[in-house]
Write a structure and sequence with these properties.
The protein has 86 residues and is of the alpha+beta class. It contains three helices and four strands; from the N terminus they run H-E-H-E-E-H-E. The protein has a four-stranded mixed β-sheet with strand order 3-2-1-4. The mean pLDDT is 84.
Length: 86
């Protein structure tokens, strides 16, 4: 780092999780089998099916659907800007 460069503190994990909480949601595609492992409270899904999960900015799952368009529509209905996670 040179003398003229400024250093900025990184966000804490808590601050990062809260960032965009009421404004941003992300959509993640996964297989039904992975949903069972990551979200045991989710309803049973047909094995082999691809689903799309809308999450709040802090990672809380909000809905599970069978299409990206449906997940982004649900984000809009909840006043969230949806982004995709790969």
């Amino acid at each position: 780092m040179t003398r003229n460069e400024k250093r900025y503190p990184l966000m804490s994990p808590q601050a990062f999780a809260a960032f965009g909480q009421d404004a941003i949601g992300y959509v993640r595609q996964m297989r039904a089998e992975d949903v069972e492992i990551l979200y045991p409270q989710a309803p049973l899904l047909v094995p082999g099916v691809t689903v799309f999960i809308l999450h709040a900015a802090d990672g809380t799952p909000l809905c599970i659907t069978d299409s990206f368009a449906e997940a982004t529509r649900d984000a809009q209905n909840n006043a969230l800007e949806a982004v995709s996670v790969h």
